[in-house]
Design a protein that fits this description.
Length: 67
């Protein structure tokens, strides 16, 4: 992660505060390290490759079976 470690610390503390979770300094230090290591992988999950040539699938008829 290219963000400043201090910014990551602020982010982690803000998330903990928003969730109402108490944490000691050692816990926060561990969470900061984990957040900085895992955040790029989580962000990569939302990166969608170029889909310029993709077309939607359209169904003309949908049959719903009756029970």
């Amino acid at each position: 992660m290219s963000a400043d470690p201090q910014d990551v610390g602020v982010r982690v503390r803000s998330l903990l505060a928003a969730a109402g979770l108490p944490a000691g300094e050692r816990e926060i230090a561990g969470l900061v390290a984990a957040y900085a290591a895992q955040r790029p992988s989580v962000d990569a999950l939302f990166e969608v490759p170029d889909t310029a040539d993709a077309r939607p699938v359209l169904l003309r008829e949908v049959v719903v079976p009756r029970d």
